Amino acid sequence: MNQLDFNGKGRRAALRGMAGMLGVLALPAWAARRSDDEAALSRLAGVNASADARLMAAALSAQAPGLSSQALVLAVQALENARRASLLQAAPRSLAVIDFSLPSTQKRLWVFDLESKALLFEEWVAHGRKTGDNMAEHFSNVHESHMSSLGAFQAGVTYTGRNGYSLRLHGLEPGFNDQAYARAIVIHGAPYVSQDIIRAQGRLGRSWGCPAVRSAVARPLIDKLADNAFLFSFYPDRQWLNQSALVGGRVRWLA
């Protein structure tokens, strides 16, 4: 997989121009981490999203200026495509978006009520221990990889296990996250997700692939998502963006 980094300056410029989402969506540049070869592939021309997806994303973005426009548009487009493909067990009333292009020290999980368009939560979230240090870099669908997975999920049932109150996730993207349920990739609270941990070690603690949240917010957040919520985990990984069953082909790349 080619992992690319997000240019924060371009992000802010794109957010200031959210009104432009009703036309052609102008997206910021991606800055490669490791090589000039990756950098040559790291510019997005745009996202081919429906008018409905752009309108919904614009409404939600007004509540969450810290969430990148392209991640939000792709999340809403993936939800629209999942509905059309009859992949959802029930109609979601909430949408959760994780932007793994942000460091773990920043809040990078947003939860929205889809009916009211209200922002319900903006939270820190951990990634898998082999996904990266402070920055996420590697993703997997493989058992025992201890990596996070990308793409679209639907929330399943709640249960209480070794990590306390937890929420099962069903991956909707073959090859990228469809092993999430079997891997026990779940949302749960964790003591290693806190400001104290960030101050002590310069990053959050890491999970075995689960999107772990603060213990204090775990129960109310999980209860909100337990209404068959749609969860979208984003990272500018070229292979996923090109091949995803729900967003594949929606991204136009510049040479």
TrEMBL record:
Keyword Transport: no
Assigned keywords, A-Z: Signal
Name the UniProt record assigns to this protein: L,D-transpeptidase-like protein
Region forming the signal peptide: 1-31
Highest classification ranks of the organism: Bacteria, Pseudomonadati, Pseudomonadota, Betaproteobacteria, Burkholderiales
One Pfam family it belongs to: YkuD_2
Alphabetized PANTHER family for the sequence: HYPOTHETICAL EXPORTED PROTEIN (PTHR38477), MUREIN L,D-TRANSPEPTIDASE CATALYTIC DOMAIN FAMILY PROTEIN (PTHR38477:SF1)
